[in-house]
Amino acid sequence: MPLSTVSDVRAREILDCRGWPTVQVDIYVDGQLQGRADVPAGRSTGLHEACVLTDGDPKRYRGLGVRNAVANVEGPIREAIVGLDVTEQRKIDSELIKLDGTPNKGNLGANAILGASLAIARAGAATANLPLYRYLNPFGHVLPVPLMNFLNGGKLTANELEIQEFILMPIGAESYGHALQITTEINEELRELVVAKYGILATNTGDEGGFATPMKGIWEPLEFLQKAAERAGYKIGFGEDIVFGLDCASSHWHDKDAGLYTLDGVSYERDALIDLYKQVAAKFPLGSVEDPLDEEDFDGFAALTQELPQTQIVGDDLFVTNVERLRIGVEHKAANAMLFKVNQIGSLSEAFDAAEFAYRHGYGVQVSERSGETEDALISDLVVALNGGQIKTGMPVRGERTAKHNRLLQIEEELGSTAIFAGHHFRQPR
Ligand code: PGA
Ligand code: ZN
To answer: Which of 108, 216, 378, 394 meets the CB 3.0–4.6 Å disulfide criterion with 209?
Structure first.
């Protein structure tokens, strides 16, 4: 038996940062634990994401238990991959996709399949005696610009902000470590500004570590961020230290029947909303906007992409890390970047396929957390392996978020002088 053959597969139900159950998978090679990975979970999910298999038993975790997914890992998945070579990632992933047999992994569960897929990658790296990012790509050397979600809204908090994430991007930093320093300095200024206007309770944080304040609409949060950045001594603008970003997650405040978007009590038709984004971009340098329009509106995305040439337009719920959705996007010229979330599609090989397809068509790739994360920092290795140049992994203030930031610091140190920080080139760092 070669030294990289799967000898056993184990799984268990663990908890994510919301306290909700998720799947952890262990891969054994020659009787030794060599790869472990946790599966993240979304709350603000897209309609077209792969299936998260939950037990539905109201007596356990209000139906959110994942014992069935765990049983699928230790049953049919184990049976399919014991004896296979851990370094044959693509072969293993395609075996699992075939075994499931459905387009959305609804049979075994994308949470079961992805857990195995990611743990296999870790086991492959361990048997090759390499860090994961280098195992996946020995040419990976780009440290990403972090999209820092200072103010949380939408489904990630209990406030009234419809827009989910108000972001600053430290594009002028010299390194990843410097980007973290800039972020924290601005965040402390922001904390003081928020306390002064809304009191101390408004500095409680949302799921991704940004303050969950009672602010409203689109302008006020941006003005707060601008003030905080300036007070911390940073210059705002393309070619400067900081640009803005948004994750609008607009499908969640779009009434599909009426065709209207309602923001702070005002309803907008698609063209009026595009006009509002143009006004925002005229006032604030907008580096990146995610899901500005409904997840089915490829034409609207195309129109906005044309209207805001300086701004990266990212599809999250629009593309769901799925090559087929991305293909439709490319045909429509809708957006120019893809959010990369491994659990939206449910295997590492398919997620890499989507990223490659994006690169081939000149689209950017932004690697992303889910709002439900664990301490597993696997996406930090992925963003470096992909030379993606940009990562969205929350504010550096909660353990499941700092795990990713701290892992990137380790990678930056390991790469030493061969590392480059994507900085102003975050959209096309390669
Ligand atoms: P989710 O939110 O992980 O709950 O989907 C993050 C996002 O929309 O980008
Ligand atoms: Zn999103």
So the answer is: 394
Instruction: Determine the residue type at 221.
Output: P
| Token reading at 313 | 């337009």
Other residues' Cβ atoms within 10 Å of the Cβ of residue 47: 11
Verify whether ligand 1 is closer than 6 Å to residue 316 (CB atom): yes
DSSP β-ladder status, 148-152 and 165-169: antiparallel
- Kindly name the residue from 162, 189, 290, 341 that is annotated as catalytic: 341
Report the residue among 340, 341, 366 best suited for mutation to probe ligand 1: largest number of ligand atoms under 8 A from its CB: 341
Domain boundary among 129, 151, 175: 129
Determine the atom of ligand 1 nearest the C-alpha atom of 45.
Answer: 5
Residue 149: CB partners within 8 Å, gap ≥ 6? 165, 166, 167, 208, 209, 210, 247, 392, 394, 395
Predicted pLDDT of residue 410 = 98
* Ligand 1 proximity of 371 Cβ (cutoff 6 Å): yes
Could you report the per-residue pLDDT of 84-136, keeping only the tens digit for each? 999 999 999 999 999 999 999 999 999 999 999 999 999 999 999 999 999 99
Asked if the structure places residue 10 within a domain, the reply is yes
Q: Are residues 120 and 232 in the same domain?
A: no
Q: For the CA atoms of 382, 402, 148, 391, what is the dihedral angle to 10 degrees?
A: 0
